[in-house]
Structures are given as structure tokens and as C-alpha cells.
Amino acid sequence: MYELDVPDRVIAELSQKLVRAVRPRIEGRPVVLIDIPVYFNVGDLLLDWSAEELVRQSRARMVNRVSGYDLPKRWRRHVSSDTVFLYIGGGNFGDLYPKHLQLRMDFLARFPNHPFIFLPQSVQFKEAAMIETARRAFTAHNHLVVNARDAVSHECIQQYFPEVETEMLPDTAVCLNGLVSSDCFGDWILVQRRRDMESDAEDLAASYFDWAYLEQDGDRKQLQKTRRLLANRRWYRNRRGHRLQKALRDMMIARALERFNRFRVVDTDRLHGMVLATLLGKKVMIRNDIYGKVGHYADTWYH
After folding, report:
1. How far apart are CA 65 and CA 216, in angstroms?
2. Dihedral, 157, 159, 161, 166 alpha carbons, nearest 10
3. Across the chain, where does the E strand assignment appear?
4. How far apart are the first and last CA of the chain?
5. Separation of alpha carbons 167 and 151, rounded Å
6. In the chain, at which end, N or C, are there fewer CB atoms within 10 A of the end residue's CB?
């Protein structure tokens, strides 16, 4: 564990660095965002919101948003010869969450001549066979850029996929700099501990916060409804599903902001717990997840 107190200047510089890198690749062009989250992990919801903001700051046009529930026939909606595909960033690049990797490979195969940009990723593979499968899919594509969000992940991409263009960039959520703010600097500490397969915590007290604690009665019912609508063959029902997904996203983010803004210090083992706290000007006590991605990111950008 160690403490961070990241100056606003650093956050602004990271945001500018990301926009400067992405803007020349998408400026003035139509963009399709792939793999929008239809679940309640606030970190990924922040990535969804910030990807939209990145597109706006890059002076591009978001013409479609695709989830893993959309039928493949929806993938071609608004796709033209100059469309760029943006794959949402985060920590699901690898074989820990195979459905996300498969969606990447399916899109690359379906659109071999369109530019693809994977927004900044943490990389974690466990199986050599999956690395080889991904390598074949990635190297078969003509216009792929895979961005890493920490130095360790960048080295992994260079090692596993040497033919693929790669760059090291900060997490997409830095684009929310200036869009979120804190109105509380009390003396309290928020302790956040993840409770999934990436957790490295030995002591999980019931009082420790995690994203799931933000859910309220009826939220899961609305989430299931969203998934059904997204998978519907009728266009108007699919569009309704996308509107509902954004409404749920914004609701969960608002709850997370309200919770974080009660505290001066955030003690977290989640990468986006750390990133959100720094965006809000909080002091952060960081602890690693089992794969070390929280520490890798902090070491790359905050020191």
C-alpha cells in the first residue's frame, strides 16, 4: 500500500496527452464505439462516458454504440468507408474475460479494412493458446492500433503481438477531467475492496464499499430489461435499449460520485476507484489487485 496525492496539473496533462494521441486518428470521421458495458461495474461505465467525451474532444462523430448483446446485423449500422471503430478500454484485454476478447476478434474479422483503435488497456493472459489465437486475429487485420495503459501492459503487447502498432496512453477516464468535481473534503476515509476473482484482499469486512453497494431495488430488473431490448431484432426496441443503457450508466456514475464526495481519502484496490478519486482531488491509498494493475498504472503515470 502507498499513498497518492496527484496534483490537478498532472491529471490535466494526462487528459491532454490522450486527446493529442487519438485526435489525429479520428478527427472529422464517424466513430463506432464497441463493447459498451451493460452491467454495473462503475469503472467500465466511466470508460463508456469518457470514450464519448474523447470522441467529442477529438472533433469526431459518434454514429453508433455496440454492446455484446446487439445482434451482428446491427454492427453495420452507419458504417461507411471512413468509419473508425473504437474498442472501449479497461482491464478486460486478455483471457480473464474471454467474451470480450472474442468480440474484439469477431469485429476485426467482420471489418478487415476499417481502422480499429483499442483504447488504453491493461493486459492479462494466462493461456499461451489464447495469446496465439489473439495474435492471429490481430496480425490478420490491416489497420489496428492497441493502446496500453501502463508500462507492463505495453511490454506485454510488444512481446505477444510484435506486428501490431501500440502506444502507451493513460486510462480513458482522464478525459473526465473538469467534468467531475468534489464538494467535500472531510476527514473520513472510504475503504473500497473488490469482491471478484481479481481481489487480493485477505480481510473483506462487510462495511467495506464496492461498486455493487450502489445498486438499489429494481436496478437489476431494469438491467435485464436493457439486455433484452438490445438483443431485440426490431430496430426501435434496440434503440430503446441503448437509451436505457445510458440512463442506467449515468445513474450509477452519479451514485458513485455522491459516495466518493463524502470523503477526503479513498483507500482502494480498484483502478477506477483510484482514477475517480484523483479526478475528484482526493488523497488515495492504493492497494493492488491480484494482477498488480493498480500499482502498474500508478507507477506509470503518477510517479
Report:
1. 26
2. 40
3. 2-4, 30-34, 61-66, 84-87, 90-94, 116-124, 144-148, 165-168, 189-192, 265-268, 283-286
4. 15
5. 10
6. C
Which positions ≥6 away from 175 have C-beta within 8 Å?
15, 18, 19, 50, 51, 53, 54, 57
- Radius of gyration, CA atoms only, the chain: 19
Amino acid at 299: D
Secondary structure of residue 9 in the 3-state scheme: helix
3-state class of 122 per DSSP?
Answer: strand
Closest CA to 104 of 81, 137, 76, 127: 137
Task: Give the H or E element holding residue 206.
Answer: none
**Reduced 3-state DSSP string for 72-88:** HHHCCCCCCCCCEEEEC
Residue with cell 442506467: 248
How far apart CA 124 and CA 149 sit, in angstroms, is 12
Q: Is the CB of residue 166 less than 8 Å from the CB of residue 149?
A: no
pLDDT tens per residue, range 253-266 = 999 999 999 999 99
Predicted TM-score of the model (pTM): 0.95
- Rounded distance between C-alpha atoms, residue 44 and residue 271, angstroms: 11
Place of cell 476507484: 273
What number of other Cβ atoms are within 10 A of residue 227's Cβ?
A: 18
Please state, in angstroms and rounded to a whole number, the distance separating the CA atoms of residues 55 and 87: 12
Judge residue 207's burial from the number of C-beta atoms within 10 Å of its C-beta, 0-12 exposed, 13-18 middle, 19 or more buried. Answer: exposed
